[in-house]
Each structure stands twice: as structure tokens, then as C-alpha cells.
Amino acid sequence: MAMRTNMIRDEHMTVSYDMVNGWTVVEIDGDVDAHTSPVIREAVLKLIDEGHRHFVLDLSFVSFMDSMGLGVVVVVTKRIRKHQGSLRIAVASSRILRVFDLSGLREGYEIYPSPEDATRHAP
């Protein structure tokens, strides 16, 4: 069983991560918006600086995402790729998938229905 490490926990959201089959699974629980996006960005960039390269961004517990949330996904994607890493996104909510569809970003990402599906094969 993986050991989840909390990075951020406040009244608006929780960001935690664990390692599964070579992937750093970053779980976000809460809204991803103008208020929380900078904090999420800093958390992921810190993991990259610590040497993590292959990420699954788990949005399973995200109830709301706006354009600032999409922006943070794009920013961390660029940084991960700059470090020869990879990113998969786990999201089951049709509401959050629709945000990716409307923005035109869905085609640019490997999107899985769950973190278990995203981590089934090692990077």
C-alpha cells in the first residue's frame, strides 16, 4: 500500500502525493481556480525540483476547475516535459472533462478514468 504525503491542506483544498508503479500521483481534493492554482503549481514544481519526473495528476476529487486551473495544468506540463518527464491525467467527472473539451486541451493529454488506470503500466 502506498504512503500518501500531504503537501498542502487548508480549508479550500488538499494536495497530496504518493508513488505508484514509478508514477508520482498528485491528488487534488477541492476546487482548482484562481485562488488555489498558484499553490498547486508550486507543489508540483517542488516535486519536479526534488527529482520526480513521471506524474499522474489525479483530479478525481476536483469539483470545479476554471481557466486558471487549466493554466496551471499547462504550466506544469511544460516544466515536466522540459525535464524529460511525462504527465497523465486521471479524471472521472464529466464536468471536469468538459472543461478540457471546451478549451481544446483534451487532445493534448493522456486522460484516464482513474489513477489506477493511469498507473497500471510503469512509465
UniProtKB/TrEMBL annotation:
Signal peptide: none annotated. It comes from the Bacteria. GO terms for molecular function: anti-sigma factor antagonist activity. Residues 13-122 form the STAS domain. Belongs to the anti-sigma-factor antagonist family. PANTHER family: ANTI-SIGMA FACTOR ANTAGONIST TM_1081-RELATED (PTHR33495:SF2), ANTI-SIGMA FACTOR ANTAGONIST TM_1081-RELATED-RELATED (PTHR33495). This is Anti-sigma factor antagonist. It comes from Streptomyces brasiliensis.
